[in-house]
């Protein structure tokens, strides 16, 4: 999700070893982890072996692969923020085990199986990105990325290190996925890979097959201009409030066009606060919720020393869901567009965009607005393509619009955190898209 901020001081220290932990030892009797809930492997992937900065990862092999592992797709998940941990995605959304938030408050936190996990038939790799996020290590503040090129450079180092750890990973098709501010991270690393691959021998290339973005913040100058009309026609504000919100939006847009990045980011924050005040909603991430998502329970779970030990995380790290320090580092990046990267990717790989229809922050309307401005030879055909009713096991799940290499999905009954809200439907979506089945078949 996009970070709303949590007061923190980034832990700065040198990391004494650089290679990822190859496997996890058995947990002690006091860890909330059961043996079957442990990742296949987890630990650290170096991005700078000189200073010790490293990205934390947690990998889960496919539970029931339908092809040899050397051909089984590998999904990589990136959380948003900027500065929010992918461990929230892991233990609250799409990982094989979720924090059990149905228990009484007096009961200790533990994990429960997630039948909608994205690693049912695929491998699934979570990366805490950028460095300084979650369990990842930033040895100094100046090493934290301040633009998407730096984000992608670090991710490429981590991903190639992970692939090199097991020869079977080399031939597996890779799909990079993520949500919210990862609407920038995902295109950035995808774009970096296709450019890097062009200069590498075939044996050294990353086998990128596609990218998937959920409720993405990708083309800010277009998306920030959609809040007023979207909220007005949802019945949440009136005409007068719509005009007031439009003025605030226009200010953010003008500052963006003049490349006053810092002030543009502040102005966009002002738009969101105005929207919150006007609607009185518990969260813009889902306008039907009476309370925000219970992601704080993941933070509580991951601050447990035994959990850190079981995951192979540095025990000195104080886990936070979202890092203010990382968010501040990327402050001037917020209103910069990466649409051109998506335009390059849709020509050389497959692209999936999906949105929970209850999200007011990075909404269906905002995605549709920037997509139709894409410079791509297939965009006219995509815009005119039929939006088809999508069902999962006979149940209405949403709508799919597809043309060529671009697919867009609206997921009904879901907000900003689609896999948390509609686990089985999101699982069906990602599996059908990767395998090009059903409505995602070749056209």
From TrEMBL:
<dbReference type="GO" id="GO:0006508">
    <property type="term" value="P:proteolysis"/>
</dbReference>
<dbReference type="InterPro" id="IPR001563">
    <property type="entry name" value="Peptidase_S10"/>
</dbReference>
<keyword id="KW-0325">Glycoprotein</keyword>
<keyword id="KW-0121">Carboxypeptidase</keyword>
<comment type="similarity">
    <text>Belongs to the peptidase S10 family.</text>
</comment>
<keyword id="KW-0732">Signal</keyword>
<dbReference type="InterPro" id="IPR029058">
    <property type="entry name" value="AB_hydrolase_fold"/>
</dbReference>
<protein>
    <recommendedName>
        <fullName>Carboxypeptidase</fullName>
    </recommendedName>
</protein>
<dbReference type="InterPro" id="IPR033124">
    <property type="entry name" value="Ser_caboxypep_his_AS"/>
</dbReference>
<keyword id="KW-0645">Protease</keyword>
<keyword id="KW-0378">Hydrolase</keyword>
<dbReference type="GO" id="GO:0004185">
    <property type="term" value="F:serine-type carboxypeptidase activity"/>
</dbReference>
<dbReference type="Pfam" id="PF00450">
    <property type="entry name" value="Peptidase_S10"/>
</dbReference>
<feature type="signal peptide">
    <location>
        <begin position="1"/>
        <end position="23"/>
    </location>
</feature>
């Amino acid at each position: 999700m996009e970070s709303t901020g949590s007061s923190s001081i980034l832990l700065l220290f040198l990391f004494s070893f650089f290679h990822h932990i190859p496997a996890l030892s058995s947990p002690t009797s006091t860890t909330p982890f059961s043996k079957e809930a442990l990742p296949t492997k987890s630990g650290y992937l170096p991005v700078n072996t000189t200073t010790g900065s490293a990205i934390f990862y947690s990998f889960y092999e496919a539970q029931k692969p339908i092809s040899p592992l050397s051909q089984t797709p590998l999904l990589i998940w990136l959380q948003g923020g900027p500065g929010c941990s992918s461990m929230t995605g892991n233990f609250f959304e799409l990982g094989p085990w979720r924090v059990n938030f149905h228990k009484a408050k007096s009961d200790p936190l533990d994990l429960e199986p997630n039948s909608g996990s994205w690693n049912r038939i695929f491998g699934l790799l979570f990366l805490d990105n950028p460095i300084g996020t979650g369990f990842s290590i930033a040895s100094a503040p100046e090493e934290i990325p301040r633009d998407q090129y730096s984000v992608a450079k670090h991710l490429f180092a981590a991903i190639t290190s992970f692939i090199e750890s097991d020869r079977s990973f080399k031939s597996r098709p890779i799909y990079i996925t993520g949500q919210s501010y990862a609407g920038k991270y995902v295109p950035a690393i995808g774009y970096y890979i296709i450019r890097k691959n062009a200069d590498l021998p075939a044996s050294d290339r990353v086998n990128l097959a596609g990218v998937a973005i959920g409720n993405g913040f990708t083309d800010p100058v277009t998306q920030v201009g959609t809040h007023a009309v979207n909220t007005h026609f949802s019945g949440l504000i009136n005409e007068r409030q719509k005009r007031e919100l439009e003025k605030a939006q226009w200010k953010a847009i003008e500052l963006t066009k003049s490349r006053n990045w810092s002030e543009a980011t502040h102005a966009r924050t002002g738009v969101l606060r105005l929207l919150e005040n006007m609607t009185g909603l518990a969260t813009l991430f889902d306008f039907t919720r009476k309370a925000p998502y219970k992601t704080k329970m993941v933070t509580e779970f991951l601050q447990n020393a035994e959990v850190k030990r079981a995951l192979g995380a540095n025990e000195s790290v104080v886990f936070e869901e979202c890092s203010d320090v990382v968010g501040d580092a990327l402050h001037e990046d917020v209103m910069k567009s990466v649409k051109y990267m998506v335009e390059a990717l849709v020509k050389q790989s497959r692209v999936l965009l999906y949105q929970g229809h209850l999200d007011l922050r990075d909404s269906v309307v905002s995605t549709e607005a920037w997509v139709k401005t894409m410079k791509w030879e297939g965009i006219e055909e995509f815009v005119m393509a039929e939006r088809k009713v999508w069902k999962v096991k006979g149940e209405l799940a949403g709508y799919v619009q597809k043309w060529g290499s671009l697919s867009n999905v609206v997921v009904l009954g879901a907000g900003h955190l689609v896999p948390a809200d509609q686990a089985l439907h999101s699982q069906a979506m990602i599996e059908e898209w990767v395998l090009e089945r059903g409505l995602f078949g070749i056209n």
